[in-house]
Every structure is written in C-alpha cells, then in structure tokens.
Amino acid sequence: MKVLVPVKRVVDYNVKVRVKADGSGVDIANVKMSMNPFDEIATEEAIRLKEAGKATEVIAVSLGETKCQETLRTALAMGADRAIHVETGVELQPLAVAKLLKAVVERETPDLVLLGKQAIDDDSNQTAQMLAALLGWPQATFASKLELEDGAALVAREVDEGLEQIRVKLPAVVSTDLRLNEPRYASLPNIMKAKRKPIEALKPEDLGVDVAPRLDYLRFEEPPKRQAGVKVGSVAELVAKLRDEAGVL
Amino acid sequence: MAVLVLAQHDNASLAKATLHAVTAASQLPGDVHLLVAGESCGAVAEAAAKVAGVARVLHVEHPAYGAPLAEDMASLLVSVAGEYDYVLAAATTFGKNVLPRAAALLDTAQLSEIVAVEAPDTFKRYVYAGNALATVKSADAKRVITVRTTAFEAAAAEGGSAEVTTVQAVEPQDLASFVGREVSEQARPDLGSARVIVSGGRGLGSGENFKILEELADTVGAAVGASRAAVDAGFVPNDYQVGQTGKIVAPELYIAVGISGAIQHLAGMKDSKVIVAINKDEEAPIFQVADYGLVGDLFKIVPELTDELKRSKA
Question: How many CA atoms lie within 13 A of A191 on its CB side?
C-alpha cells in the first residue's frame, strides 16, 4: 500500500513573524523555514507504517517555490522513498492545493493520504477536508491514533469534547493532530542518503490545475498589543488587585 | 439573499458556539437560517427557532445524523446551499471538520475563523499564530466561512420565533462510520464559555498536581485548561488544550499557572480580558502579556490563592 504525504514549507514555529511596515504582508525574508510541524507528524506516521510492514512506499509531495525541495529533502531524510515537487511561484491557497494534490493522487493512486491538520502560517485547517471532498474519499481529521485494518482505518480524533473514534474505508485522507506521534530527527547518514533519492518535478500546468488565488489578502496589521502589566508581591495583593482594580472577582 | 448557519448540537440541546456564529451571520446581508440535522433532534430545532435573529430553521432527521460524519454533513449542506450566499459554522472541531469539505464540493475558497465582518465580501482573520491580522476579500459567489466564537457575542437564545421547515436528508455515503466517543467528564464550565479559566502548563509536573488547579478553579467556578506541553506530557486530556491549534478562549479572567507562554499558547488566550501569570521564571514570556504577574513557586502560591479566594468569598 502506498502512502502519499503532502508537506508544506512554512516559517519555523519558533519564529515570531512581523508585519511589514506597508501592511502588504509579513516579513519572512531571512527567517528560518521548516516543514510544517503537523506535516512532520504525518511523515513520521507514514514512515512508521512502512517500518511496520503495512505500507510499501512513502511518497512526499510539496507544492510551491523551488525551495520546497529542502522540505522534501527533510521528508526523504526522515525516511520517505521518493518525492514530487509541483513548482509554482503563485501563492497557493488551500482549494488550489487540494486540486493539485487530487491530480497527484490520481497519478500515484495511493491508498492513504496523510497530512497535517493545519499549516502554521495561514492557519486555515482546510486542505485535508477539501482533498477528501474532491476525491470523494472519506476523511479522518485531527487524528491522534491510526490503526490500519483490512480495507479500512480506525482513527481516534481529537475533538472539542474529548476523543472520537471513526472507521474510514480506504482509500482515505487522514489529517494529523499533535499527539499522533513524536517525529524523529533525521540522522546524518540518512540526510546524506536523501540527497540521492529522486525528486520528480512537475508544474501545475502538467496537472491541468488552475491555481489562481480566490481570496485576496488585502492587507495585514499587527494585532492589538497587550501591555505587560505589573508584578505583584503576594497572593493577598493579587486578590486585592483582581477585586478592586480589575473587577473580575 | 440569505445566510445559512450549520447548527452544532448533541440532539438534545443547541451548542453555545452556534449562537456566536449566528451573531456573525446577522452582520451579513440577508435572513439568517439555521440548519439543524440530527436524530430525534426536534427539541434542538425548537430551541433554534427561538434564537434571536433567526428567520427560519431547516430541520432534518436521519439516523446517520445522530453522530454526524463530515461526509454526510457536507453532502447535506451542498444539497441545501443553492439558495444561500453564505454558509457559516462556528470554528469548533465540528465546524472545522465539515465546512471545508462542503466548500470544496461547492468549489469555493473557505474563509477560516473570521474575527470580523468588514463588508459583505471582506473579513478579518488571524494568520501566523495570531501574529498578523489579515483583511481578506473573497471573490467567490457563495462564501463558506467558519467563525471564531470569541470574536462575536452570543446571540440571545430566546426572543426569536422562526418558522421550522422540514428538509429531506441526503442518503448516507457509507464511506465512514462512527465507532465511539470518549468524552472527558468535566463537572466544571466549558472552556469555550467559562468566565474564568485556570490553565496549567509543564510547570505542574504531573497530572496528579493538576488537583491544586482544580481546587482553585472550583473556588471561583472556573474551567480548567492546559498548555500543549501539559497535554503532550499526558497530564490532562487533549480537550484541555488552549492555543493556536487547540481551543481559542477569551474569558474575563485567565490564570496561567506554570505556563511559560509559547507563541502558540498566547495565540489561544491573549484576548482574555485580564491575564494573571504565576511562574517561577521571572523571564517567562507569559509575563509580557499578563496584567498581573506573580513570580514564585506555584505549589505554594496556588493553594494560598485558593484559600485567600475562599476567605474573600466567605
């Protein structure tokens, strides 16, 4: 069984981005970029499926500018077998991403697509659901446990009320939540080995997908800043302030 | 012109999150309709009809909607979406699961977790873990939107008198099946609607130690939350997590205990009215957003705070 893992190149989760002075975007020149943490979890899960003898091949796919190849190399160093890069300079929004991934899925015919529930840059939380819809496949979002059965997957999902279990028929799209696993670090020998693994290059035109953005991000602003308050010296002082000054008790 | 809001419920009562989505819907042009799909959920449809500002309730009954799956909910939404310009839901895990699937079937780019309606086609939403607020214009004819509940007041649960219309279910697709649910039993208020939240982080050291937070919470009728670190460490279940990819909260009072204040956590709570931070590390970033900070050993401070609050109530 083949597993396809879409991975996104995003600003590293430790970076606190700043809005550009002219409000045209956020300043991501010269900041550290990494694989979206949720996609790292998806990659790890796919590799574990292969190590457990349940998956035969793990294919990483990334969409966007040339540098996405670095993200693909990370996936390959973690243990993916090969990679596909759909190169475009266009700002890709979730619906376009889902359409491109659908085209890739149709070429590769995986039984399972594993990807992060959310990218930590645009915070949309849409792509997995949209891809499943376009393929007419079932979806299991926010997965914290994944067990493969004969022709199906049993998935525990993190929901607001706690945990929910569903069974989806394969092929299916599964989006990963934080507690699914702890991704490994790629070892140096594996990083070296990954350099020789193949990355296939495609263009949106090769896949016949219109990727033009539908949402126009008109401007960006800094969110309202909170003022750092005061340090209090004792519990009694804290309670007095909460009661008399803040009026929340 | 009309706005359809997908109601969230447990077949017995309407979720409060939906009332917040109704308020966002009421800022858009057209009547607000609520879609109540469930199994034996007549009481929810009746309650939905009483929500202030709702003009019509679409009531759908089907055994498959008892524990709704995204596949079936999305097909149902698509079947009724024809006459609507907007399809909305609260950005709960339910709404986040269903709406993008419906959006893709409608070939529409979804707007996730809006926090303001600027114009009928223009909205505000946070990106980059709340570090940038974007103004976004949608070019689609039909707009699919999830609503951050903390950004819109709840509509009044009483006062409306909407007409209830019965709508046909869509045959289930049999792609997925519901197996079960483990709900964490909390006698305390829900994180989404609590007036006060007491949240714990890695500094608590163990799940056992969360007891001192629970005592504090019960003294002031608060909900208990947690940082990602505390959930990852297994101290508390996943539904406690406050943050960028967990729950977004904005209570009157947020007490962060043993939480250092990673960007991702701040994204989930920095709209709280008053923030208190208790941490032994005076350099912890949480103090930069806290109105009141207390540096010290939480295992001494928290019980003392509980006692002090009990005394001041007595």
Answer: 8
ipTM of the prediction: 0.96
Residue B159, sorted as left (phi over 0), alpha (psi -120 to 50) or beta, turns out to be left
Interchain proximity B237–A125, CB inside 8 Å: no
Token pair, residue B176, equals 């997925």
Q: Which of B126, B137, B220 is nearest residue A223 as measured by Cβ atoms?
A: B126
- Dihedral sign computed on CA atoms, order B121, B122, B124, B127: positive
Which candidate, B312, B309, B265, B306, places its Cα nearest to that of B288? B265
| Cβ-contact A143, B238 below 8 angstroms | no
Does the beta-carbon distance from B181 to A161 stay under 8 Å? yes
Please give the torsion angle defined by the CA atoms of residues A199, A204, A207 and A213, in that order, rounded to the nearest 10 degrees: 130
**The whole model's pTM is what?**
0.96
pLDDT, tens digit (0-9, with 9 covering 90-100), for A110-137: 999 999 999 999 999 999 999 999 999 9
Residue type, B103: A
Q: How many angstroms separate the CA of residue B222 from the nearest CA in chain A?
A: 11
pLDDT in tens, A18-40: 999 999 999 999 999 999 999 99
